[in-house]
């Protein structure tokens, strides 16, 4: 109402939530090792070379290994690191369609994308509640718990305004699969999760 009063020429478009949800599909597959994960990722990014793709990993080391793998396969990609000027240059290339694939870690959330690949299920490490930690010199035991917020942020702005988008996650264990299913059933997210067997990529 405030905007309408100040700017009466502004046209508001309201899209039903159900329609927004149908533009984004959530898929996952299970793999046994890093080699299989790499090949699934490679197949996904080469299906449509013009697709705007963001690949998310949990660590900088994994980001670098993904970048090295794709470059060796002849697939150009950019990575975000600590150099802000370089990041800005890479983002401009992505925005100007000179580069279609970005490999990033958590903390970098890009809106312009058609495909999101979670190379790993987004998780947080928390102290294991079943283990008491009395020795301060001993390394604390941790467990991986689903990171609902990161998943939501990663998939934000994919498939908006009637444009189809896909959020694809690669899982490597039953624990990963359970964490992903917990994320999909979270009340704030609550999306249908589709499974595709890894053999379908061969």
Write up this protein.
The strands form two sheets. The chain has a seven-stranded parallel beta sheet, sandwiched between helices. The protein has seven helices and nine strands. Strand 3 (78-79), helix 5 and strand 4 form a beta-alpha-beta unit. The model is unreliable at 1-21 (pLDDT under 50). The chain is of the alpha/beta class and 202 residues long. It has helices at 2-6, 17-22, 34-47, 60-72, 84-95, 148-155, 174-184, and strands at 24-30, 53-57, 78-79, 101-105, 115-118, 123-127, 142-146, 165-171, 193-195.
Summarize the structure.
The protein has 202 residues and is an alpha/beta fold. The protein has helices at residues 2-6, 17-22, 34-47, 60-72, 84-95, 148-155, 174-184, and strands at residues 24-30, 53-57, 78-79, 101-105, 115-118, 123-127, 142-146, 165-171, 193-195. It has seven helices and nine strands; from the N terminus they run ααβαβαβαββββαβαβ.
Task: Identify the notable features of this structure and list them briefly.
202 residues, alpha/beta, seven-stranded parallel sheet, two-stranded antiparallel sheet, 9 strands, 34% helix, globular
